[in-house]
Amino acid sequence: MKWIKAESYEEMSKIAAEIFKEELQVNREMVLGLATGGTPEGFYKELVNAYKAGEISFADAKSFNLDEYIGISPENEASYHYYMDQQLFNHINMKDENIHVPTGDTSDLAKAAADYDAMIEAAGNVDIQLLGIGVNGHIGFNEPGTPFSLGTNVVELTESTREANKIYFDSLDEVPTHAITMGIQTIMNAKKVVLLISGASKQEAYNRLRSGEITEDFPASALHKHKDVIVIYTDVK
Ligand code: PGA
């Protein structure tokens, strides 16, 4: 695991975007693994700017997002699909058929989960997976206690996660209780992982990851077993 300290949120976003840009410039058919949340917003701005400046093209690239809420349609403004459209997809030239976000509004979630892993595998696996980290150490929506061996699956969200995400809803009651997420194993199959950590609320998660301990109680610790992980952090000590 390689650790890069950024002096600011903007610098963290730029360093991460640079890693993706460099790959895309040599591999036009890159498979991007993407994340939602507050942390990657600056990263998406950097990618959109690079696209608009003609530095990169997504014409032959594919993307797979980490997760989606259950019971929320892609058109719902609180959905991760909607977030991704706003932050990235509406502004770049990735083809619709190459954009993948797990399906959370289907009656057959088990099939949606299995199909998602099959699609990622058929695409040759993710080249670079972007990750944020939850205050409880979750990656994607893999909450503490998740077996590292799981592929894409349906999870019950913890109260701390629902609490952290209620800013995107009118009230806590409206935050979904379940989500569909790439599993830890799906994430570990990515060829490279870029993990962003920003801000004081993530101090404890940062400390725990930095300790090197590997435990299913702290999902991000699985990444210690991956051979190519870059952690870019800012505003944590
Ligand atoms: P955040 O979410 O970027 O909004 O803090 C990260 C996460 O929960 O994985």
In words, what does this structure look like?
31% of the residues lie in helices and 18% in strands. The model has no long low-confidence stretch (mean pLDDT 97). Strand 2, helix 2 and strand 3 form a beta-alpha-beta unit. It has one domain: Rossmann fold (3-Layer(aba) Sandwich), CATH 3.40.50.1360. Strands 1-10-9-6-2-3-5 form a seven-stranded parallel β-sheet, with helices on one face. The protein is an alpha/beta fold. It has helices at 9-26, 41-52, 80-87, 109-122, 159-165, 184-188, 203-211, and strands at 2-5, 31-34, 62-65, 67-69, 99-100, 128-131, 153-156, 178-181, 192-198, 229-234. The protein is globular and about 45 Å long. The two termini are 18 Å apart. The protein has seven helices and ten strands. The structure holds 2-phosphoglycolic acid (PGA). 2-phosphoglycolic acid (PGA) is lined by residues 37-39, 132-134, 138. 2-phosphoglycolic acid binds at residues 37-39, 132-134, 138.
| Whole-angstrom Rg | 16 Å
* Parts with pLDDT < 50 across at least 5 consecutive residues: none
Tell me the structural class: alpha/beta
Write the CATH architecture name.
3-Layer(aba) Sandwich
Level-1 CATH class name: Alpha Beta
